[in-house]
Task: inverse folding
């Protein structure tokens, strides 16, 4: 029992389950899933469907945060990827041609990868702090997206492209399957090879890792490139879902949601440890929170206030200084010196 | 090797020793002057002094924001909430004055107190609970923006005579005229300048930015200073919001999205080191001017406004690389 409680995924999962159950009070058929025309529908399906782009962005963000960095530019990369793909498709004579869509997708992903690698070069080679390096692309990126689209919102009508964000495969939403495959493959590579361990080592101490022979600079470059790629894929999903590219609003504030997902998932912002499963659950928590706010009839404008409260609480709970100052005092004389702060119930100090 | 032993090399090295901290500011001033001359040659109307005064007018609120941000960055932190706090103050002004009929004389001080209190709250979380500044102020950003939406998602126009009169008043200055908001923002700059360079608090800010550990060992009041720095930033953001209410005569919940980035860019372009401990508030004024001149050139050249953002991004990049080069030489 204590093993389950002490698992890193326990708290995020608990929050998710409580949020889901809480929804039952407002919508009794919340857990109902029905199949219409061979497609599954239901509130739960909506949550994973709309959460798929966020989960992808958060996946890239997890790896970046694992190395002790942060990527603020993901929202801009989302809008750039959508802009590149929609621009290419809009220039095709037959927008439904699969080849044109494939080229557009490849171009968008290539551009996203390049922007991610650019961030990586800034951080690993030039030595700029990650917040600032990615801030530059965050500021300039939306401008670049506008430039690509000449300030317009490009609307397209392409059924193969529409499939990415709003299509179905094996009765499941295609976007969820794409996200699941990407997340699954990344998790396999990270945890079945030494790569994940190396990333955690770089996040723990980049200089020490370099001295023991880990190519920390190349690894840092790699994670930013992957983060760019994930954001690009999410950008394709978002623009495909609405069949248009909007440089100003596509992916607006998704970087904040992604960071929030990573933090809720138990990955510390200081780097050195990461949990991909936790991030996925974190992304689902945020999407559920957003959905809950809609279903409860609370004005959707208050979403941000809720998210702010969640960020604050989660960050405070993660902060060792906060836990020490608040919880140790409450336990008072019962506790021994803080050698094992996480298992206080087993400690019995003789009176 | 050989260059160092030549007399010119020695002389040059001597000139730069101890003055390296002025290099970024000088670079910014050079960029500003070159842009100004170039634009004036290209667009004859650009050289008019009134254009420069308009740059100040259009960016008075940004100047006040950036001054607050300078304090935070000098202390080695960052404040991402300023854009949202500006929006919240503007909203509060519009909402309390228009919808609830409160007097501006009550509302404006109230808004500034809220800004300062919010800032100190974030500072306290950052210092006492060791939450990274980036995350604590991110939460503040969400909160302030969320409260804007809670107040109203529609724009509230301000028709109170105090606001409209102030917006229409001009202070004559010879043949030219300037806005009261410009005067106010310059007063803020002057106060900040004196505070940073001639008071104990200012020296503490620099010391903490240089090395928090050393400042602590020296017995400086690290906790109070850090909380105060974020309070200053919150106060500046709230004041900038009031100026913005004068400027637009309306409260709208989407104002100031991304403005924290403009403020950070102005501070960095103005030569303040992002790692803290080195920089000048007057450099920040230059940074805001660079931003404003780029904006004005974009207007004059009839380019679309996103070029401003791209050029600001490129300049930010340039100056950060410059900081790295100078920083690398120092060690």
Result:
């Amino acid at each position: 029992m204590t093993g389950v409680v002490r698992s890193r995924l326990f708290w995020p999962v608990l929050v998710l389950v409580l949020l889901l159950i809480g929804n039952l009070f407002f919508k009794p058929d919340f857990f109902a899933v029905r199949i219409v025309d061979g497609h599954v529908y239901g509130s739960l399906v909506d949550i994973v469907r709309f959460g798929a782009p966020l989960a992808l962005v958060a996946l890239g963000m997890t790896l970046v945060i694992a190395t002790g960095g942060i990527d603020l530019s993901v929202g801009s990369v989302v809008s750039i990827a959508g802009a590149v793909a929609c621009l290419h498709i809009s220039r095709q004579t037959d927008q439904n041609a699969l080849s044109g869509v494939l080229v557009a997708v490849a171009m968008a992903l290539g551009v996203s990868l390049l922007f991610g690698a650019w961030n990586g070069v800034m951080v690993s080679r030039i030595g700029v702090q990650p917040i600032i390096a990615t801030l530059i692309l965050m500021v300039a990126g939306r401008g670049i997206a506008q430039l690509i689209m000449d300030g317009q919102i490009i609307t397209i009508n392409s059924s193969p492209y529409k499939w990415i964000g709003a299509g179905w495969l094996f009765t499941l939403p295609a976007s969820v399957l794409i996200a699941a495959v990407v997340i699954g493959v990344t998790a396999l590579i990270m945890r079945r090879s030494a790569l994940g361990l190396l990333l955690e080592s770089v996040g723990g101490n980049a200089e020490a890792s370099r001295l023991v022979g880990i190519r920390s600079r190349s690894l840092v470059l790699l994670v930013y490139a992957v983060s760019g790629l994930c954001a690009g894929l999410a950008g394709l999903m978002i623009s495909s879902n609405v069949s248009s590219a909007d440089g100003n609003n596509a992916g607006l504030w998704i970087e904040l949601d992604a960071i929030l997902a990573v933090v809720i998932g138990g990955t510390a912002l200081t780097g050195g440890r990461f949990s991909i499963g936790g991030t996925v659950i974190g992304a689902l928590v945020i999407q559920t929170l957003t959905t809950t706010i809609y279903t409860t009839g609370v004005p959707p404008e208050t979403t941000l206030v809720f998210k702010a409260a969640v960020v604050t609480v989660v960050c405070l709970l993660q902060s060792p200084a906060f836990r020490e100052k608040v919880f140790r005092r409450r336990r008072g004389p019962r506790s021994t010196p803080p050698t094992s702060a996480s298992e206080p119930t087993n400690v019995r100090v003789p009176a | 090797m050989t260059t160092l032993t030549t007399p010119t090399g020695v002389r040059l090295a001597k000139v730069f020793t101890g003055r390296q901290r002025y290099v970024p500011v000088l670079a910014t001033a050079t960029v500003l002057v070159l842009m100004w001359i170039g634009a004036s040659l290209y667009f004859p109307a650009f050289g008019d002094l009134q254009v420069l005064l308009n740059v100040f007018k259009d960016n008075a609120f940004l100047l006040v924001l950036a001054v607050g941000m300078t304090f935070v960055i000098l202390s080695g932190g960052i404040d991402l909430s300023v854009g949202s706090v500006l929006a919240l103050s503007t909203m509060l002004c519009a909402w309390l004055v228009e919808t609830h009929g409160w007097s501006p004389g009550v509302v404006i001080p109230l808004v500034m107190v809220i800004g300062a209190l919010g800032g100190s709250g974030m500072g306290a979380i950052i210092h006492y609970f060791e939450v990274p500044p980036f995350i604590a102020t991110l939460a503040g950003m969400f909160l302030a923006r969320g409260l804007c939406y809670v107040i109203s998602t529609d724009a509230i126009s301000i028709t109170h005579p105090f606001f409209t009169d102030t917006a229409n008043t001009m202070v004559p200055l010879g043949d030219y005229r300037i806005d009261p908001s410009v005067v106010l923002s310059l007063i803020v700059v002057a106060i900040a300048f004196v505070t940073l360079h001639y008071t104990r608090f200012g020296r503490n800010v620099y010391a903490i930015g240089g090395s928090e550990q050393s400042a602590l060992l020296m017995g400086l009041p690290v906790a109070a200073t850090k909380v105060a720095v974020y309070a200053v930033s919150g106060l500046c953001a709230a004041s900038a919001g009031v100026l913005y209410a004068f400027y637009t005569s309306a409260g709208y919940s989407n104002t100031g999205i991304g403005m924290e980035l403009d403020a950070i860019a102005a501070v960095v372009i103005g030569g303040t080191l992002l790692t803290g401990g080195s920089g000048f508030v007057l450099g920040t004024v230059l940074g805001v001017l660079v931003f404003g001149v780029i904006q004005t050139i974009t207007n004059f050249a009839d380019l679309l406004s996103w070029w401003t953002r791209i050029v600001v991004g490129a300049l930010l990049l340039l100056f950060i690389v410059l900081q790295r080069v100078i920083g690398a030489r120092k060690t």
About this structure: Chain B has one domain: 24-330. DSSP finds 16 helices and four strands in chain B. Residues 222-248 of chain B form the longest helix (27 residues).
